Amino acid sequence: MNKQYLVGLWIEHPVRAIDQLYTYTANQYVAQGTRVRVNFNRRDVIGFVEECVALEGSIEAKEKELGVELKQVLEVLDEEPLITPELHDLAMYMKEMTLSTTISCFQALLPAKVKPTSSKHQIVKEAWVILSDKEVDLTPKQLEAYLYVKEHMPLKYSDLRKAFPNQAHVLIEKGAIQKEEKEKEASRTVHEAHIDKFPLTPLQEAAMKEIEESEDAVYLLHGVTGSGKTEIYLQLAEKELEKKRQVLFLVPEISLTPQMIARVSSRFGSELAIYHSGLNAQEKYEQYRKVKNGIAEIVVGTRSAVFLPFHDLGLIIVDEEQDGSYKQDTQPAYHCRDMAIYRGKYHHCKTILGSATPSLDSYARALKGRYHLVTLKERINETLPSITLVPLKDAIKKGESYILSDTLSKKMEERLEKHQQMILLLNRRGYHSLLRCNHCQEVIHCPHCDLAMSYHKSDKTMKCHTCGTSILVPKICPSCKQRASFSTAGFGTEKLEQEVSKRFPHARVLRMDADTTTKKNSHETILKKFENQEADILLGTQMIAKGLDYPNVTLVGIINGDEGLNRTDYRSCETTFDLLMQASGRSGRAKEEGEVVIQVFEPDHYVVECAKNQNYQRFFEQEMKFRHDGQYPPYTYMISITIQNRNQHEADAIALSILHQLEGDYKKIGVIPLLKIRDLYRNRILLKGKNLEEMRTALGKLLETNTFKQKDIRIDVNPMGLDG
Ligand code: ADP
Ligand code: ZN
User: Fold this and answer.
1) 162 and 206 both lie in a single domain
2) Nearest bound ligand to the CA of residue 266
3) Closest atom of ligand 1 to CA, residue 200
4) If you measure from the C-alpha of residue 383 to the centroid of ligand 1, how many angstroms do you get, rounded to a whole number?
5) pLDDT score of 530
6) pLDDT for res 1
7) What pLDDT, on the 0 to 100 scale, is given for residue 374?
8) Residues 711 and 568 in one domain
9) Relative to the alpha carbon of 570, which ligand is closest?
10) Taking the model in full, what pTM does it have?
């Protein structure tokens, strides 16, 4: 009898209940990370091999020993392991960090075409033609086609058919040429004109040298917008590419603009892969193969590009490291930054986190010396835009428009006359469910948390999503004590566009937000138009605040500069400050001096003040005080546990039971009811404490117990946002 092997594998289904190794037998050795087809509970499913050892003794003896019936692996699906040893370790690290199931971590690593659950996805094949060595008689026209193949090999069958529609098929029939099926490959990047690199400024030079000469693994490159960080990334990348090592350049979802891609691709003669969520499954798979086959030398991509199968990374860049799009909000709720740092260590390469407004977590780590802090103090053009604050309460009292104040309108008019461009930002990401008093313009805050409460229309209550406090809408305003008359705060970009067109009928306006960018490439089209100066005003949501570099933009208007402060989340200040700084950074990046107008309700708020003075350090100190007083991260760690259930009683019961069973030196906050979504009742429990390991271990153990492993419980370790 053939030699038999025992195979331990993970079953493709991402529920906790089966997150364990199952044993099968195989008559060949199967390497870790290979996919196999097996029978599980009478269903044909895919498994991922974890371990494989030669079987000593008979199968029957082994079955007796294990007390189970051993089934045979039905088919080995991959010639070589899909998950390399490095990615396997990364998945295990992710599992531990995020308390997710093993298979969900494997899924996160792989593009949809090869994901465990997607056997329905077909790999797209293409037909190619080659000459055969068979001798056949050909007509003159067929001979011409034959010679065409000879000259153009390797040639796609479809291309031959285009050139010789009547001969292609006959040549194959006669056996003069042969068809070959190959997996469809991504087209090679076309390089535009080679843009020369800039000689670095002395400040850039110093920063680059500091990074190059240090042995440290992780760097935080802190430099105001327009200080030349990207230029440094590119020059560091160039050096690694010369050494034939690969470069991974990670960018936030919204800053992967055509401008950014052009900037990278035009610089290098190297092969570039681009990887982001806008690609369809086939396109993603093609880019994945380019990396796997070692064709791509540099990859520019968003979050999931961090999992591409690199062979030899020489540099990892995480641009705008504070950006929320680096955190995955579904399971496994990993942070791309953590994954990047992990891979950097594996490849012994440097990881550079770059930002004008680093996350508090990263900056605090840098100050502690865990990241190597490198600072760029000045803009390339040495002038920051000048910033004007418009207190909206005063403007409204004077009867000015609450959308476009007189100050902003006047400056807009000036730009239109001078044929300069401007950007108007309206940060309304759906957080308009606040109540603002019509008399004093104050927003209703949680009595316990000092965070804005969100208005729940259905039961006319105000709820705090952080501590769970719920109150009825007050009859008198808590701030000015007048009889209540509230309006829901917030208006959208559509209304802003209307107002702008009414006020400036001749201005050419482009709007960019979730509604105007649903079509593929609409993003690119809008930005291209603006770049070509086919519009005077670009207005939109936070989509337009980041990364754009247009020299003719000399005015940025921020319509509702502090609305973000009223979010129901402890990170409201951080994200608002980031947005204000980023948006301001779009103005005056070239020769013309830039101006920024920020309209606000709270001109004295430290976030607004620090943004006006473009002072990150001061913001950091103030915000760290707030975090310290409230014992929020980075002074503590948090884990958010969300229980989902179709039955409200059960959702409550599970939550209470978790709450009671968790014991330790940490705070348990909850049960906090969240909004019902898609008929699922949702409850949240927050764990907050100084010892993340303790919380993680306790929760991990609990989730493995029979009571909980069948339940729909979502875990988010170090959540980025706590909005329902
Ligand atoms: P950041 O990434 O910090 O926002 P960039 O690298 O985009 O900064 O640089 C800002 C602008 O200055 C860009 O338009 C860039 O082309 C230009 N720039 C960067 N470095 C130099 C340099 N050494 N000399 C001249 N221009 C530069
Ligand atoms: Zn509260």
Assistant:
1) no
2) 1
3) 23
4) 13
5) 94
6) 57
7) 98
8) no
9) 2
10) 0.82
Nearest ligand, CA 447: 2
Counting atoms of ligand 1 from 1, which one is nearest the CA of 204? 23
For position 653, which CATH number holds? 3.30.70.600
Query: Which DSSP state fits 439?
Result: T
* Residue 462 alpha carbon to ligand 2 centre in Å: 10
Q: Which residue CA neighbors atom 23 of ligand 1 most closely?
A: 200
Which of 602, 624, 646 marks a domain boundary?
A: 624
Residues framing ligand 1 (Cβ under 6 A):
198-201, 204, 223, 225-231, 380, 549, 589
Residue 121: the pLDDT is 44
Residue whose Cα lies nearest atom 10 of ligand 1: it is: 226
Tell the residue nearest (CA) to atom 20 of ligand 1: 228
- DSSP readout, 97-158? HHT--HHHHHHHHS-GGG-TT-TTSPPPEEEEEEE-S------HHHHHHHHHHHHH-SEEHH
Question: Could you tell me the distance, in angstroms and rounded to a whole number, from the CA of residue 326 to the centre of ligand 2?
Answer: 27
Please tell me the distance from the alpha carbon of residue 125 to that of residue 145, in angstroms, as a whole number.
23
Q: For the chain, what is the domain count?
A: 5
Radius of gyration of the chain (CA): 29
For residue 232, which atom of ligand 1 is closest to its CA? 6
**What pLDDT is recorded for position 428?**
65
Tell me the DSSP string of 408-428: HHHHHHHHHHHT-EEEEE---
Same domain, 216 and 363: yes
In terms of domains, do 234 and 322 share one? Answer: yes
Q: 347 and 396 share a domain?
A: no
CATH of the domain at 336: 3.40.50.300
CA of 594 to the centre of ligand 1 (A): 16
Candidate of 197, 225, 230 to mutate for ligand 1, largest count of ligand atoms within 8 Å of Cβ: 230
Token look-up 């006319």 returns: 460
Q: What is the Cα–Cα distance from 607 to 622, expressed in whole angstroms?
A: 9
- pLDDT (tens digit per residue) in 649-661: 999 999 999 999 9
Same domain, 685 and 599: no
Q: What integer pLDDT is reported at residue 433 of this predicted model? A: 61
Write the pLDDT tens digit of every residue in 99-110. Answer: 999 999 999 998
Taking the CA of residue 381 as reference, the ligand 1 atom at the shortest distance is 12
* Segment 355-365, tens digit of pLDDT: 999 999 999 99
Domain limits for position 133: 125-183
Give dist(CA 193, CA 48) in Å, integer: 45
pLDDT at 119: 45
Q: Are residues 372 and 392 in the same domain?
A: no
- Which ligand 1 atom sits closest to the C-alpha of 201? 23
Q: Return d(Cα 118, Cα 72) in angstroms, integer.
A: 22
The end-to-end CA distance of the chain, in Å, is 60
> Tokens standing for 29?
């050795």
Q: Which ligand places an atom closest to the C-alpha of 451?
A: 2
Token look-up 């008019």 returns 413
Å from CA of 452 to ligand 2 middle: 8
> Considering only CA atoms, which residue is closest to atom 5 of ligand 1?
228
List the Cα angle 639/644/646 in 5-degree steps.
Answer: 170
pLDDT for the residue numbered 431: 36
Counting as low any pLDDT under 70, the low residues of the chain are 1, 114-125, 183-196, 269-270, 428-433, 449-450, 456-458, 465-467, 489-491, 567-568, 676-678, 723-724
In this structure, the answer to whether residues 421 and 530 fall within a common structural domain is yes
**Does residue 467 lie within any of the structural domains?**
no
Residue 459 lies in a domain: no
* CA 566–ligand 2 middle distance (angstroms): 13
Give the Å distance between the CA of 201 and the centre of ligand 1.
10
Relative to the CA of 233, which ligand 1 atom is closest?
A: 6
pLDDT tens-digit series, residues 121-180: 455 667 888 888 777 888 888 888 888 888 887 788 888 888 888 888 888 888 888 887
Question: 35: burial class by Cβ within 10 Å (0-12, 13-18, 19+)?
Answer: buried
Domain termination site, one of 624, 659, 688: 624
Contact by Cβ (8 Å): 296, 273: yes
Cβ neighbours around 695 below 10 Å, total: 25
